[in-house]
Amino acid sequence: MQNEHQFEESVETADETPDAGRRQFFRKALLAAGSVTAAGTLAAKAVRAAESAAKTSAAPLPAPQSYADGSKLERMRVELLQALQKPVAQRKWVMVIDQQKCVGCSSCTVSCNAENNLPPGVVYRPVPKEQVGTFPNVAWRFTPRPCMHCDNPPCVPVCPVTATWKREDGIVVIDYDICIGCRNCLASCPYNARTADFGDFFGRGTPEVMDYETRPNFEYSKKWVRKPGSHASPIGNARKCTFCLHRIRVGVLPACVTTCLGGATYFGDYNDKHSLVHELIGATRVQRLKEELGTEPSVFYLV
Amino acid sequence: MSKENKTAANIKTEKAAEKLSRRNFLKSTAFVGGCTALGLPAAGALTGFFSAGAAAAGEKSTPYVLAAPENQIYSSCLQCHVACQTKSKIWDGTLAKITGSPYSPQNFLPHIPYQTSPRDAAPIDGKLCTKGQTAVQTYYDPYRVRKVLKRAGKRGSNKWKAIPFSQFIDEVVKGGKLFSGLGDDGHYPGFEEVIALRDPKLSAAMAKDAKKCGQGKMEIGAFKQKYKDHLDKLIDPDHPDLGPKNNGFVFMAGRIEHGRKEMMKRFTGKSLGSKNAFEHTTVCEQSHHIAYAETSGHKTHHMKPDLVNCEFVLFWGTGAYSANFGLTCMAEKATTSKVERGMKIAVVDARLSHDAGKADWWLPVEPDKNGTLAMAMIRWIIENKRYDQRYLENANKAAAKADGEPTWTNATHLVKIIDGHPRELLRASEVGIGTEKQMVVSRNGQFVAVDPKDTANVVEGDLFVKTEVKGTPVKSAFQLLAEQAFARPLQDYARDCGVALKTIIAVARELTSHGKRAAVDMYRGPVQSTDGYYSGCLVITLNMLIGCMDYKGGLMKGGGHWHEAGGKPGNVYNLGKLHPGALKAFGPKITREKARYEDFSLFRENGYPAKRPWYPFTGNVYQEIIPSFAGGYPYGGKILLTHMGTAAFSLPGGNQQIIDMLKDPKRVPLFIASDIVIGETSMYADYILPDLTFLERWGMPHPTPDNATKLSKIRQPVGKPLTEEVTVGGEKMPICLETFMIAVVSKMKLSGFGKDAFGPGMHLTRMEDWFLKEAANIAYGDKKGEAVPAADDAELDIFRKARRHLPASVFDEARWQKALRNDEEWRRTVYVLNRGGRFAPYGSNYKGKYIKSQIATMFNFFVERVAKQKNSISGKYFSGVAIIGGEYDAAGKPLARTAAYPFKIISYKDPIGGQSRTISNYWGNIGLQPANKVLIHPTDAGKLGLSQDQKVRLVSQDNPKGRLELKDGAGRVIDMIGRVNIMEGMRPGTLAVSWHYGHWAYGSNDVVVDGKKIGGDRRRAGGLCTNPLLAVDPVIKDVCLSDPIGGSTSFSDSRVNVVPL
Fold first, then answer.
1. Are B175 and B76 in a shared domain?
2. Which residues does chain A have within 8 Å of residue B1018's beta carbon, measured at their own beta carbons?
3. What separation, in Å, do the N-terminal and C-terminal C-alpha atoms of chain A show?
4. Is residue B829 part of a domain?
5. B114 and B247 in one domain?
6. Which chain A residues are within 8 Å of B56, Cβ to Cβ?
């Protein structure tokens, strides 16, 4: 098998990342054309078309070979690699969370924090914990709550600058370089999936802000460096779960999935009828949060 | 879009930046050592908030470099003792992310084959809990100590100065008036003075004769005559069995794992000749280990259910989802078995743990009545004949084998009752049917001699036997257990332990409904009490009644490991033997553990009661180290070295007394603390020796028994060392514990470290000289011919590049190779280092219906060793049969209770918290939960008129004001105040407070270093540590309540009250 992960940082990987200039063009054109809300939706559609066209210099991916038969993580990783062989528009990323298996360990929350180097106050995947019942018949209910990556995302049309849109593969993204930090999207999300990056650091009030806080994160396959006193993106932006787009592009499962201690979190391509997530969504105990709002989330719960 | 919002965001950012820059002036080189050159912008740069981003777009496109094998190092965690296998990802020299390793079944199930190349494994991440992942923040803790600190005020005054490492070594070796600069004329003993006996041959001879003196086999006068030129080397020539003055050096480790542990023992015992090297085990779960050890005839001290195949598991005061041994490796096995295979789970816990809240049954036991609940189940099982009779009737290995049983028990063995006390097993010689080594069973009224290990002659016995031999009453071990169980009706047990009778019966029925595919698991929950050993035995008894040990789906000892320390035929370095000139340490340990009082001259002089308890069955009696050291029984200590432990904070009770002792140089003459930060205990030290975190150093932790696959773990340097680089013996290295040991021994020209330490031409002058040899042993394996492959050039290339960020003081390839003999050893070792250890294939764990790695031994319903021993204070016999114990003082008297303190109190571990050391983990401990709370049931809260989150002060009989005085010279007092969390999932009448919060040091407080104030981070002081409230033993008076057999400290026998604020 070929060496697909280059040692030096010289490889272009962003297969589907639309060229910033092109997106800028659509945004400007549409802003000129009409209302902000309509522009957002139209822009998203336009960008989708651009994405499909933009599949150019992708780095070679690992072969879809499982190294551990019987491991659900390996099965999902292989299915992920298979999905990546299809055009973006034919993928539909979904997540399934089995609440019977969730043990409330918060490992997903912290894994996400570390993966994306999140500062104080920014959380992509909280796990609310509640007790149900009265003594001695009491149970715990844990509800991990990432971005739902809705098919009808309420956050998209309220963005005044079309900094957020839904990709063809289902992922709702934010372009930090466009986002102006107005936080309309925070208010519009019925799942409280978005938080604002106020530029805080864990090292605040200590003798030193340490290296790990100033190393880049790799969201959207770019380097984002946060420095104390700076206000370069993502400081000042709305932030949220990306389904670890930067990882899945190179064939690595999202951080919350690989670290889920209870084995409760699943990820994959719903368009693949043989995938694990497709199997699980067929279960009788499947539900989505706030189904009545018509947001059509891409996150499914097994209760 | 709102303008206000934008402004608000702006202001908040500016404030944060302003605080940062202000703090920056308070830097001290003792803390910050060039980890980050933090450049802060001028105030004017804080304008144009939204202008920065767009320009960079397009230029910052980047591949995901963290998935490249050259940016990954496999190692082992140490946020808890599960020691998970990790994959650390490094970005441009910065430790960016820690995940689980796919090579290990602890972190990836089933794991990938061992031969998978690191390149193919690179995009595969395994699981890791929050603690492990937040270890990035343990390593990058801004409060890390980088240089040696010497106190610049009285002990505990939080005033320090940074000194050169060489000065530190000089001072602690030579001793003297070390603090005369502070106006303190006191003499501080150094190693030169304390390590009095340095002749290996003499030490061996004296050790032998001193033991004879202790046992009364040699006159003390004769000893004094024989060694008349060397009496000055003894602690007390009139009690030579107390050992040499060397015992005045005490190495008190909290957490120390294999690799480093053996090095500590080499240093303390063989280089310095002191008996006193300790771990922390009794503050954790020692009585559980001792219960397993005694019931299994010392064949194991730890067993776990095979969760992958279990049909029913009863978690007793533990579980798979929060802590235990541990959540990362156990959680998915339990959830998968439960959801996909229908495994049922019951949980015993006074608090609704995550496990209990997801279980089929929750048994909210009274926290001091675990033994009662177990006895209730035992009674029901015996009464309803739900035990495995065929299994229990097997009296020896031959009988077990005939039935296809890997284990058997002494249920049928007969016990003599002397003075009403089941004292000894009846021997075949006593009834004229065999030898002294054979036991006796009764079958259909006939005595039959039995050798428990006999594999040829099948012997079975009757379970219920009550007879007489020459006037002495004799009963079978099972009869004795049944009599205990039938002493009271089930309803009484149920009422006492607070669990509904129908639930007890339902769970006991479930346990006995799955043949061998059921198991009861425990860890510290039922055993951290004064009757911990007995309760532990009762819980193990439930497993023995169904005989599930060694069965697939039953209870197992785990898959084991390849040995790193050497001594096996395949191993290439026998490190224990490679120590020319080793001293022979002798005398009792200062804690009087693993020693019978009756074997020492002090006993013959004083008899019962002993001044402080002796612990013949257990070791690492952590709570006794400092009080014995300071109190001078059986002898006083001189130099205390603490390491990765914090007695003043972690011990349950007696915390004020410990602070008082540590404060007093007369009682604790020299105190050196090895720590990564200034902690709750190290703040009282004379010197702080900065240590490396587990991410910068080596270790060889052993696997957890819940995992049936054979595996060996390796911990190795991952991040650049943050401590000062120093030169010792011409070699550059970061300051750490190993550096200290090498420096002290080299300076004193003792054995075991330094040039030629392993033998001629074999040096131990750098830490990898030790650890690479251990890694090589793992690579070669226990048997000849089972070595791992040699790393090829491509693997070597990955190995080298992945370490390109490490300085030569840590990674120097040529120097590392010199620690081994040849290129073949080197390449095989690289192969295991590239995978963070060695892992057998998944699926190699079972043999038909059995676990492959078996214990295959006899389990004891009657433990003769315990039955024949007396409590050193009361002089009364312990019980060889598991009994319902109680809450007792050191003399075995029930504790006095008053109505003023009506609440029971327990502690527990949150999944995000690891002991005393995770408060620096901002993503977890502070980010997810800034403070712990006092959990209380709504009925109790209602009686006290409490509202949610209300502040309360907790008070207790031994701490009626609910406070702890730090005696730091500034009069700081820690109040036992917390906020309540009123919840249904709490047993009424009991409070629970988690254990990771309530710090008074560890970066939470201000300290002065080199005259500069280093501001503490108050976020790290959140919540409450309840330990200072817990009971002090009323007989010994300066130490917490303890289990006299297992040695465990008591966390569940105290009573408190709640004062609303």
1. no
2. 205
3. 41
4. yes
5. no
6. 177, 232
Are A113 and B35 inside 8 Å of each other by CB? no
**How far is the alpha carbon of B994 from chain A, nearest alpha carbon, in Å?**
15
Beta-bridge partners for B688: B149, B673
Distance CA B814, CA B816 (A): 5
Q: Is B464 within a domain?
A: no
Q: Name which of B36, B98, B1019 is nearest A208 (Cβ-Cβ).
A: B36
DSSP structure class, residue B765: S
Domains assigned to chain A: 20-302 (3.30.70.20)
- Tell whether B346 lies on the interface with A, counting CB pairs under 8 A: no
Crossing angle for the helix pair B490-497 and B501-511, to the nearest 10 degrees: 110
Instruction: Give yes or no for B707 touching A (CB within 8 A).
Output: no
Taking the C-alpha atoms of residue B638 and residue B630, their distance in angstroms, rounded to an integer, is 9
For chain A, say whether B631 makes contact (Cβ under 8 Å): no
Would B486 be classed as within a structural domain? Answer: no
- Using CB atoms, pick whichever of B49, B113, B327 lies closest to residue A231: B49
Q: Say if residue B155 is in the same domain as residue B133.
A: no
- What distance lies between CA B498 and its chain's CA centroid? 30
* CATH code where residue B254 lies: 3.40.50.740
Q: Which residues contact A8 (CB under 8 A, 6 or more apart)?
A: none
- Specify whether B178 is located in the same domain as B263: yes
Q: Are residues B227 and B245 in the same domain?
A: yes
Nearest residue of B to residue A135, measured between CA atoms = B984
The C-alpha angle A112, A116, A122, rounded to 5 degrees, equals 75
Kindly state whether A103 is in contact with chain B, defined as any CB-CB distance less than 8 angstroms. yes
d(CA B940, CA B836): 50
Q: Please identify, among B807, B839, B871, the residue that sits at the C-terminal boundary of a domain.
A: B839
Per-residue pLDDT of chain A (303 residues; tens, 9 = 90+): 333 333 333 333 344 444 443 344 344 333 334 344 444 444 444 444 444 434 434 467 899 999 999 999 999 999 999 999 999 999 999 999 999 999 999 999 999 999 999 999 999 999 999 999 999 999 999 999 999 999 999 999 999 999 999 999 999 999 999 999 999 999 999 999 999 999 999 999 999 999 999 999 999 999 999 999 999 999 999 999 999 999 999 999 999 999 999 999 999 999 999 999 999 999 899 999 999 999 999 999 999
Contact between A106 and B911 using a beta-carbon 8 Å cutoff:
yes
Instruction: Return the number of CB contacts < 8 Å for A and B.
Output: 365
Check whether residue B133 and residue B260 sit in a common domain.
no
pTM here? Answer: 0.93
Same structural domain, B671 and B633:
yes
Same-domain check for residues B706 and B625: no
Tokens matching residue B16: 């944060």
Q: How far apart are CA B406 and CA B856, in angstroms?
A: 5
Using a 10 angstrom Cβ sphere, with 0-12 exposed, 13-18 middle and 19 or more buried, the burial of residue B14 is middle
Instruction: Tell whether the torsion through CA atoms of B305, B311, B315 and B318 is positive or negative.
Output: positive
Q: Which residue has the tokens 């899945």?
A: A248
DSSP category for residue A87: -
Inter-chain residue contact A5 with B28, CB threshold 8 Å? no
**Burial per residue of B242-263, b for 16 or more beta-carbon CB atoms within 10 angstroms, e otherwise:** bbbbbbbbbbbbbbbbbbbbbb
Contact B75, B697 (CB under 8 A): no
List the 135-154 stretch of A: residues with Cβ below 8 A of B.
135-136, 138-140, 142
What range does the domain containing B998 cover?
903-1060
Give CA–CA dist A226/B378, Å, rounded.
61
Evaluate whether residue B562 is within a structural domain: no
Q: Contact A199/B124, CB-based, under 8 Å?
A: no
Sheet of strand B421-425, all strands in order from the earlier edge strand to the far edge: B421-425, B414-418, B472-476, B466-469
ipTM value of the model?
Answer: 0.93
